[in-house]
Amino acid sequence: MAVQLFYFLSALATLSALMVVFSRNPVHSVLYLILVFFCLTGHYILLNAQFLAIVNIIVYAGAIMVLFLFVIMFLNLRKDAEQKQPPLMKFIAVITGGLLLLIIVSVLSKVDMIQAQKTGFNSQIGLVENLGKVLYTEYLLPFELASVLFLVAMVGAVMLGKREAGERHF
Length: 170
What we know:
The structure is a single chain. The chain is mainly alpha-helical. Among the domains are: about 1-80, NADH-ubiquinone/plastoquinone oxidoreductase chain 6, subunit NuoJ (Four Helix Bundle (Hemerythrin (Met), subunit A)); about 130-165. It contains six helices and no strands. The protein has helices spanning about 1-20, 25-45, 50-75, 85-110, 130-135, 140-160. The model has no long low-confidence stretch (mean pLDDT about 85).
């Protein structure tokens, strides 16, 4: 059952990702991208990484996609305002995409595939309890430094956003 679900989610994610690229309407592209994120969340659940699955739904499918939709609607993209691309730009895009594909294929051809060993599989590896233990024991210093960095960034954003009376607005 898990294998069939994996193949279904993979096919749906691939099809949705292609629709993100080939869709002419930017709002439809964002909706297809949300579907890709939900498929990836299904993959995380199949890998027993529940915490990553929930974070993926909350952060990416929730907050980031709302931000994308807000920006797209703010830009008010219309067909009549769209500029035509010269044929040279399309040719350069095709050449660049082909070179990128060539690089990816050459790199992946040199990769040795290894088979997972069932004896070394730990079913508890993606659980929140184990993640918290590792985060607060081995990685306590980087975790605390990141939290201080986020605090400084928030204070800086508030200070930059705060306007004093009589200041010039650029």
